[in-house]
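Example S7 (structure tokens).
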């Protein structure tokens, strides 16, 4: 319970900082670049998330300088927020998987806990991608294929710019909120899934030594890693 509270407080703290960063950036770029509030919000969001659609770009010299500084500050903060969101989702999913496994098997210790957690989060992520596709399909006039394509390109932060959610700027604010919340939720699940996969690799490696260690270059603990470098001639490995 204490771990959950610590993660929650950390998440709230980082979220407040991220919110203030977006809000201040929105006000600054609205003034410097003579943007509408909604355009400034879209610009700040696409900058700190590294999507960079290219629909809105700084035109003034001051705006370009501020964009560079804003990205240096905003991008790491956004990554920290995603990390805390992922930790919270991962923690809750582990608790659910543990309770379900103990209830079904009757054993106190859950085998391959992180692998099972990753499996659950994978299907949650697939569900969120499908839900995001339907959201874009409803809020826009795009086909299901174009909606799925745009959603995946957005979530992977590739951001080609051929299809842009919630742009041009005449769309309603409620549409903006729905899309931003959907993106943030899915990114948090992706962060949690990656964390589970990393833990699962170490977990499986502790049970099945050899192949997985060589494939992913990971070891059961620090002593195993130190032993590897002490017992192998690195010059011969190159």
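Recovered sequence:
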């Amino acid at each position: 319970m204490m771990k959950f509270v610590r993660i929650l407080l950390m998440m709230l703290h980082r979220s407040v900082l991220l919110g203030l960063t977006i809000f201040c950036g929105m006000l600054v770029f609205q003034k410097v670049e003579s943007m509408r509030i909604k355009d400034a919000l879209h610009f700040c969001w696409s900058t700190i998330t590294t999507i960079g659609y290219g629909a809105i770009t700084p035109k003034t010299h001051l705006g370009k300088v501020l964009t560079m500084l804003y990205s240096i500050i905003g991008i790491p903060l956004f990554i920290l927020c995603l990390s805390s969101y992922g930790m919270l989702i991962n923690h809750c999913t582990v608790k659910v998987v543990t309770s379900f496994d103990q209830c079904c098997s009757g054993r106190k210790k859950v085998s391959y806990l992180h692998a099972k957690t990753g499996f659950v989060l994978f299907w949650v992520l697939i569900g969120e991608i499908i839900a995001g596709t339907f959201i874009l399909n409803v809020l826009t006039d795009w086909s299901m294929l174009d909606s799925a394509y745009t959603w995946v390109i957005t979530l992977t932060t590739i951001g080609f710019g051929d299809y842009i959610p919630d742009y041009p700027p005449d769309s309603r604010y409620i549409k903006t909120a729905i899309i931003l919340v959907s993106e943030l939720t899915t990114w948090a699940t992706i962060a949690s899934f990656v964390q589970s996969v990393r833990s699962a690799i170490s977990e499986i490696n502790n049970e099945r030594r050899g192949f997985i260690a060589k494939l992913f270059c990971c070891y059961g603990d620090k002593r195993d890693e130190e032993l590897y470098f002490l017992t192998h001639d690195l010059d011969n490995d190159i």
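Notes on this example. The two ends are 47 Å apart (CA to CA).
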